[in-house]
Amino acid sequence: MIKKESIENLKNNLDIVDVISQFIEVKKSGANFKACCPFHGETTPSFVVSPAKQIYHCFGCGVGGDSIKFVMEYEKLSYPEAIEKLASMNNVNLEYDNVNTKQQDIRILEDVNKFYQKLFVNNNTAKKYINSRGISEFSIEKFEIGYAPTSGDTINFLKSNHYNLTDAIDLGVIDTGTNGLYSRFIERITFPIYGINGKMVGFGGRTITGHNAKYVNSPQTKVFNKSRLLYGYHLAKEHIYKKNQLIVCEGYLDVIMLHQAGFNTAVATLGTALTKDHLPLVRRGEPKIILAYDGDKAGLTAAFKASVMLSQGEFEGGVVIFGEGVDPADMVKEGKIEELNQIFSSPQAFIPYSIDYIIDKYEINNPSQKQKALTEANDYLKSLSPLNQDEYKRYIAQKLNIRENRVSVNNDVSHRPIDSNLTKIDIAELCIIKSILEKPSRLDSVLDIVDASMFEAHKNEFDLVLNDISNISLNSITLNEKLENYDDERLNQELLTLLYKFYSNKLTAISYDKSYDFREKANLIRKIKDNIYQLKQGKLVSYNL
Hints:
The strands form four sheets. Strands 1-2-3-4-5 form a five-stranded antiparallel beta sheet. It has a five-stranded mixed beta sheet with strand order 13-12-14-15-16. The radius of gyration is 31 Å and the shape is globular.
């Protein structure tokens, strides 16, 4: 069992926006963040995350909770498993009631990295290669470049320092094969990879002795998922926020050399194309995204796929394609810094790049090929926002030399009604409830004058406020930005209105109710009329029926 105090310590170290944005893409929206709900299909964001409340709620399907609940639901984990995953992601140590329970020691990664760094200093072959690429001593230290020795040397290091070898396997440092234990990184220059929280999660490695795979990365582990990581992001993130720019490259050396030349917003994918799993990370801070890719076939294709995805997500930015055989690292080494400045300052926007890529695949002087180009371009155009559809249909028409009306767009684009799930509600009642939730101390003064029966539409919600104020069902009220949070004066005015409406309806009902005897009915009517009189005078009256 994980100790309760340990779980509370973890919760205090969690930020719900940071947690959720590692799994899905969230956008700033006023004081909160919004996203398309990952638990039901939708195209209009109704999933709201509150950094102030440290909760989330979907107005579409009703799910909600805190960071732990999200990881449980998203990753399909039990409560203890979600706790342990979040602890690993945030490098928080957990304590267990059973002292014999062994925690995974993620410090192994850091210590192996230091071991590799020391070996690099004394390896002339590795140093010669790094120097030949123009990497400075400062960059070697900044990016903690190391060297992985023979398999046996890494395993002996782990054993001599009494590390738990099971942990080393789980963290992707070593593995087991038909001949026993072996190191994942053998005779390779190593590049440590960090998560967004600045904690080391794995390695990248480049061979210098002719292994079949030029580059390898750590395998998938509890802390390493290459589809959600960007090399160099931990060093670049503050600059990304300040400069409102993010340069996405294809390799470790491109990142290192660009940083060396002052382009300190550069990051790289880890041997994979930019994917939807990367979007939550690149969305952080809403930077302008620059794709800096090679001009070979693989680079052009990767730039196209990323451009389509980013344009559909309405990211700002564009594409920079380097000439075949040349990459950013080469240009830095050759001192072409000013040329790089000019290139990065004028990228081709994602949408025209995508359209050009589509049309350039076809021989448009051939009518049948032109039709195929138009069909594919139309399909792409329809995936964009209505404004961009209207803007770029002219561009497609010009590229294909056809009339603009030949380019079809979604004229029947429909949007889900705002808060369509809130059709039969009483806004005033919900605002009163929200105002109490935002300042629970108000409940004591309200209890004397308000009863749940006074709420016509939201009696159940007010009952929850009275009996279980932390119930996640109330998140839909707390996070609804369309509901006002009244100040004390406005709350009193709204309570007066609520009470006046209640007592007026009560007076009418009792007047026609034949179940009361004459004296009882007269007494009730007198009390109600007295309450109504006081309410008209602006006085909140205690509930006395």
